[in-house]
Design brief:
Length: about 290
């Protein structure tokens, strides 16, 4: 028995389309499953927990949605030690990008999940909350706050419009960053604590991050001018921004940050700092190409 957890509104309806496809895929192979669609995220989490309570030894969870659904599902399946197959149906799909699966052809992922054993990868844990890809604070969190309040435009363009709104008035903030072996006291524009490689729909903020090495890659963007930021920003989509002198990347198993700022993880609001995050090795079972 599988749990098929679907967010039908992911990717402007892409979740409903792919969820229907996955259900048909399972039916054609006579594989037992139960569809879980909630009225809202809280309801969906409750329904998933009831399924897990009913089928503690189930085959696992197939989640059809974006990084928001990933974040919700992780909170339930990690304690239950259930494997996850994440079908990319959202706007960003950065966790699936990190794992290395195609964003358009989902058959290889389904085939592997239904026929092979999963492998263990790392997750981040921030103040009791699991995350798969990236925990961040600074300019991108300010942009997330703005984007979440906007009804237009839809899709990835919303993030770019929010950047245009927020950049003119944005100012670096002071951060106290406590790592495994040292403390960094600095002004910064952005800090990304990376288990995965990308966020924001393919921005390779930490291109060398590895989900199976037991460490976070921590990227600190020290203050630069607005003009320089506009020049450097496009490089993040290829990961070449890491050679810029204002970019510092360090590795640490545990990270604590104190500042007057908010944090986001997998695109979901964590809340006000201070925060403490730990890279927990091998805690999620999933499939990779």
């Amino acid at each position: 028995m599988w749990a098929l957890v679907i967010n039908p509104v992911s990717g402007q309806g892409n979740g409903a389309r792919l969820g229907t496809y996955v259900a048909g895929y399972l039916n054609a192979r006579s594989i037992s499953y139960e569809i879980i669609i909630g009225r809202n995220p809280i309801d969906q989490a409750d329904l998933l927990q009831k399924f897990i309570d009913k089928y503690p030894d189930c085959s696992g969870v197939i989640a059809v949605g974006g990084d928001g659904l990933l974040h919700l599902v992780l909170q339930k399946i990690v304690p239950a030690q259930l494997p996850l197959a994440m079908i990319p149906a959202g706007t960003g799909n950065d966790f699936v990008r990190t794992l290395g699966w195609s964003l358009t052809d989902i058959d290889p992922l389904l085939e592997k999940a239904l026929s092979t054993k999963p492998r263990s990868i790392d997750l981040g844990l921030v103040d009791g909350e699991w995350f798969g890809a990236i925990l961040s604070t600074g300019f991108d969190s300010v942009v997330n706050e703005r984007a979440n309040s906007m009804s237009w435009p839809k899709g990835p363009m919303k993030y770019n419009v929010a950047i245009a709104f927020e950049l003119p008035s944005f100012k670096p903030r002071h951060y106290e960053i406590v790592l495994d072996d040292r403390t960094i006291s600095t002004e910064a524009m952005l800090i990304a604590i990376s288990n995965g490689r990308s966020y924001g729909g393919g921005m390779l903020v930490c291109p060398q991050a590895d989900v199976a090495d037991g460490f976070f890659d921590v990227m600190v963007l020290h203050p630069i001018s607005k003009l320089e930021f506009i020049k450097v920003f496009p490089r993040v989509f290829k990961g070449t921004h890491i050679t810029h002198p204002a970019v510092e990347i360090v590795r640490s198993k545990k990270v604590s940050i104190v500042a007057d700022a908010v944090a986001y993880a997998d695109g979901e609001r964590v809340g006000q700092l201070p925060i403490t995050a730990e890279c927990v090795r091998g805690v999620l079972m999933t499939w990779m190409p």
